[in-house]
From TrEMBL:
Gene3D superfamilies named in the record: alpha/beta hydrolase
GO MF entries: hydrolase activity
Taxonomic source organism: Acinetobacter rudis
Source species, domain of life: Bacteria
UniProt name for this protein: Alpha/beta hydrolase
Length: 324
C-alpha cells in the first residue's frame, strides 16, 4: 500500500449495524489490487463531549462489538472504530483479505481517522486495540509520542508474540518471516483454534451476530506476508517500546488449546498465550498497567456477561483515574 497520508473522505451514511451508527469511507492511493479503502464507523454519545475512543480490530475481524460502543457512550465518549483496508467493510471484490506487508501500512488510515475525530471537536482520544489491533496501536502510540490528542492506550489481548513453542519461536519463525518477505503469497498453517469463532457466533455456541465472511470460522492457512509483518513488528515490542501516555493492557487469566468443545473455550484465551502478553506488556516503558481478567476469552468484551462487566468496570475506573 502507498503510505501517503493523502486521502479523500465520503459523507457519513448509515452503517450496517443500526440507525445510530454511521460510517464514512476513506480512500487512499490505489495499490496493485485496486482501491485502498478504510472505513470509519462512529456512534455518538447522548451529550456533546470532547472525549472519544478510536478502536482497531484484530486479525480475521472487523468492528461489530456494539456493546463496547454503548459502554463508551454511557461513560461520556463518542465511539469510533476503524475497519482497516482489506478487512470487513473496507474489503473490495478482487482483493486479498487481510493482505499486508508491514504493519506501518495502516498508519495512514489511523492518522486520517484521528484527524477526522479531532476535526469533530475531540481533544481527548483513547486509542484502543484488540489482538493484532493491540499490536498496531501500541506501535502507533510509540511512534507518535507527541500526538496532541491521544491521551491513553487500552489494549484487549494484544498480539505481542506468536503462541507457539520455544523451538518454533527461536528457529522456525525467523526463517518463515524471511521467506515471507521474499514470497509473500506463500501460505503457512495458521494453527488457529477452530472453536474460537464458533464460540462467539449465535448460529453455533455464542450470543453474537456478525458477518462470517468477514470473520470466518475456519482459516487453516495464513499468508507468509502476514507472518513477516507481525514478526518484524513484535521485535520492537520485545525490546521494550517506549510509551508517553498511560496504557492499560488486559488479558485473560489462562490460555488453552482445546481440541473439542467445552468450558475451556468459554473461559480461556484460545488464540494467544497470556503469559506472552503479560511478559511483553511488562517490558513496555512508561506508565503501563497490566490487568488479568479471570475467565476472559481472547476478545475480552465478548466474554460471558459477568466477565465483560468486570472489563468495563476496570477500564472506566482506570480511565477516570488517568485522563478524565
Amino acid at each position: 500500500m502507498n503510505n501517503s497520508s493523502a486521502y479523500s473522505q465520503s459523507p457519513y451514511q448509515q452503517d450496517i449495524l443500526a440507525a445510530d451508527y454511521e460510517q464514512t469511507t476513506l480512500s487512499f492511493a490505489a495499490d496493485e489490487q485496486g482501491p485502498v479503502i478504510a472505513t470509519l464507523v462512529r456512534k455518538k454519545a447522548s451529550k456533546q463531549t470532547s472525549k472519544a475512543v478510536l478502536y482497531i480490530h484484530g486479525f480475521l475481524d472487523y468492528f461489530f462489538q456494539t456493546q463496547m460502543a454503548e459502554q463508551f457512550n454511557q461513560h461520556g465518549y463518542d465511539f469510533y472504530a476503524l475497519d482497516l483496508h482489506k478487512y470487513g467493510r473496507s474489503y473490495r471484490t478482487g482483493q486479498t483479505f487481510y493482505d499486508v506487508r508491514q504493519l506501518s501500512e495502516y498508519d495512514a488510515e489511523i492518522t486520517a481517522a484521528l484527524e477526522i475525530i479531532a476535526t469533530e471537536k475531540h481533544h481527548h482520544i483513547v486509542l484502543a486495540g484488540h489482538s493484532t489491533g493491540g499490536l498496531i496501536t501500541t506501535l502507533y502510540a510509540a511512534h507518535h509520542p507527541n500526538h496532541p490528542f491521544i491521551k491513553a492506550l487500552w489494549n484487549n489481548s494484544p498480539f505481542y508474540d506468536f503462541n507457539t513453542n520455544i523451538f518454533k519461536k527461536k528457529l522456525a519463525l525467523p526463517r518463515v518471516s524471511a521467506l515471507g518477505k521474499r514470497f509473500p503469497k506463500l501460505k503457512f498453517p495458521s494453527e488457529l483454534n477452530p472453536w474460537y469463532t464458533k464460540s462467539l457466533h449465535k448460529d453455533f455456541y455464542g450470543e453474537w451476530d456478525f458477518n462470517l465472511n468477514w470473520k470466518p470460522t475456519h482459516y487453516p492457512k495464513v499468508y507468509l506476508s502476514f507472518i513477516h509483518a507481525i514478526y518484524e513488528a513484535q521485535k520492537e515490542i520485545h525490546m521494550g517500546a517506549k510509551l508517553t501516555i498511560p496504557a492499560l493492557i488486559m488479558h485473560s487469566h489462562q490460555s488453552k488449546n482445546p481440541k473439542r468443545w467445552g468450558t475451556e473455550v468459554q473461559n480461556s484465551d484460545v488464540i494467544l498465550s497470556v503469559k506472552d502478553i503479560e511478559k511483553y506488556a511488562n517490558k513496555l516503558q512508561g506508565d503501563v498497567s497490566v490487568m488479568t481478567i479471570k475467565n476472559g476469552i481472547h476478545d475480552l468484551v465478548l466474554s460471558a456477561a459477568p466477565v465483560r462487566a468486570e472489563v468495563y468496570q476496570n477500564l472506566f475506573t482506570w480511565l477516570k483515574e488517568k485522563i478524565d
